[in-house]
Design brief:
The complex is a heterodimer of chains A (294) and B (312).
Chain A (H helix, E strand, L loop, with lengths): L3 H7 L11 H34 L3 H4 L13 H8 L2 H29 L8 H13 L3 H13 L6 H24 L4 H9 L4 H30 L2 H6 L7 H12 L3 H21 L1 H8 L6
Chain B lengths: L1 H9 L12 H8 L3 H22 L1 E2 L9 E2 L3 H8 L1 H32 L6 H13 L2 H12 L6 H6 L9 H4 L1 H26 L3 H9 L4 H28 L4 H6 L11 H11 L3 H34 L1
Antiparallel strand pairs in B: 1-2
Amino acid sequence: MATATPERTVTPAGGDDQQLNPKARRSVGGTLLSVLAWIVGIGFFFPILWMVLTAFKQEADAYTTPPKLFFSPTLDQFRAVFDAGIGPYLLNSLFATVVSTILVLVLATPAAYAVSLRPVKKVQDVLFFFISTKMLPVVAAIVPIYVVVNDIGMLDNIWTLIVLYTAMNLPIAVWMMRSFFQEVPKELLEAASMDGASLARSLREVVLPVISPGMAATALICVIFAWNEFFFAVNLTAARAATVPVFLVGFITSEGLYFAKLCAAATMAALPVVIAGWIAQNKLVQGLSFGAVK
Amino acid sequence: MTVTAERPAEVTPRRPDRGPGSRADGWIRRAPLLPALIFTIIITQLPFLFTIYYSLQSWNLVRPGSRQFVGLDNYVKVFTDSQFRQVALNTVLLTAGAVIFSMILGLLFALLLDRAFFGRGFIRTLLITPFLITPVAAALLWKTVLFDPTYGLINFVLSPFGAGQTDWISTFPLTSVMIALVWQWAPFMMLLTLAGLQSQPHDVLEAARVDGAGTFAVFREVTIPHLRRFIELGLVLGAIYLVNTFDAIYMMTQGGPGTASANLPFYIYQRAFLGFDIGQSAAMGVVVVVATIIVSTFALRLIFRSFSGEES
């Protein structure tokens, strides 16, 4: 489909077109498409490149018409972001992300086992239930969550976010882990149990090696979602437990909209997840589609 | 889904005390599932019961002692609230628009990437990056560096075409938010449709070509039908995630001007956390849930139908 245009122009071949055989022409068309892909890719990425560049500018260089591509880079803006106190927010984000991801794996792995290798009776219903929780809009739950969290004195507490992020990522993790469990060769499991291997041993020696790359991918997906989460964080936390996205909001309110500074802050906020996502890019779809696409 | 297919074989008509199908066996199978299931029910389902309960009360947090049972009053207010209708319409427009445009863009990107060329992996990595950017940071980026009337890149790029210092966000608030969302979601659609393109059965493609079908005919007759369920899945999943959009609106427009760019999540947030009207916002929450259940029952069927056949 990619070569549609060049190929079709071949048919009414005439005059000087004769010098190029169809194959050569296809490669000309191919080159054009490759160039197009490069242009599109760079164009689409450009806002991010620009954000990173701006983060290394002095404010004066950030406010110019036309925009400046060349400038003498500085770390002043990153320093300003640290001076504004991003540190504790980064730690909160890190803690909430890591702990919730561990909890998700601890809960999701056995659950996925119970809907794949040694299934419970109503697998379909269970899977349906998990996915349906993702369909219910979060906003409809925020009011009672706020009231309850307030009543038990857990507002502005990082563990509140951890519990909510665990619940938020659990359904995705169960679906994703299930698709990895299904890749475990049944024959291998049967052979192991015939050889008298205990359940623990066959889980450790047969199942674990097959699913561990999948666990890593699942963990990365959970990290991405937990790190980027904003709705719960902004509504349930304040000075003590707030995460990086909340810092960004506070930062622009207190510092004003200074391009270079906010680009530095935004770059720092986004960087960990961008790296995690680049590593997990092949698994992103699997996570987001609840394992429907392998 | 293969799993369920094997299930009937294990169900024995009588229930012995041990072995497959017995009560004990059932609990052994269930045990690993229960922690996750119970946790999910408590954290995600209980709040909705409370939402229903609160929605029947008049309760404003800033007026202590105002809490009382009012029956369906809140619902009457919700349905007679013209702002609520406006916001509901915005939600539909924003979700549908963002999903459809990101699918179109994503599909085009996937087609560009579905062939070998120099730097393909690199370009793919560049293209998915917008999806990974923290939504709050992405919204900030669009609001300032890109959409700024004076110093923004968009107006600079458009200046040869005679664009002045258009203030995109206040002139076209909903469209601006939608553009930022499409930029973030097109990469996801691309990954999904690319997975679809690359899972095409090569023998069928070859056979079609050998039969003399042109590239375009192959695309229309083989590729599109194959891609259909991937596209459907993308539309459904995109809608699930995008209907909850909050970050972009919060950062870019605060729902304004007026309620021009507010969607339901943002509007309910405003009612609950700026207006402290618990009863009213709970009622809206219930209405949203009911609407979502209606839509998603249909959507879930689509997912199950599209992908349950694949594994068997």
